[in-house]
Amino acid sequence: MKSELKQQFSMRITQANKTELVVILYEMFLTYVADAKEDLAKEDIKTFRLDIQRARGCLKELMGSLNFDYEPAPSLLSLYMYVSKLLVSADIHNEAEPLDEVAKIMQKLHDAYETIAKEDQSGPVMG
Fold first, then answer.
1. How many angstroms separate the CA atoms of 99 and 102, rounded?
2. Could you tell me where the DSSP H helices lie in the chain?
């Protein structure tokens, strides 16, 4: 991830409400997956693995943010676990195909949360 994009994410995080934070995590995740695919195409395995680790870090945060008092949480956890397995497979086998599936799944979830975020009128988490 380029430093300019990191700065943009940092700025957005400081102004985001809870739902927007989830959207930002999805965007960071998708950026790391795209970067990993580029790294693999360049045969830069060290950076590829680092980007996979960073994507897994975002996924871990998404898992940690689930509220199991509400119904979608168990289903989302199962989906996140599946995505995690695909990331591990991509990492172990140095393959881009699992990353394509991961990006497809997470993009759909991002789009859903982005729609929800537009309706969330709560204030920023950071005060």
1. 5
2. 3-15, 18-41, 45-64, 72-93, 97-119
- What are the backbone angles phi and psi of residue 84, rounded to the nearest 5°? -60, -45
44 backbone dihedrals φ, ψ, rounded to 5°: -95, 80
Residue 52's nearest CA partner among 110, 101, 99, 3 is: 99
Q: Classify residue 105 by its DSSP letter.
A: H
Task: Find, among 78, 80, 90, the residue nearest to 35 by Cα.
Answer: 90
- The token pair at 77 is 């956890």
Q: 68-88 pLDDT, tens per residue?
A: 999 899 999 999 999 999 999
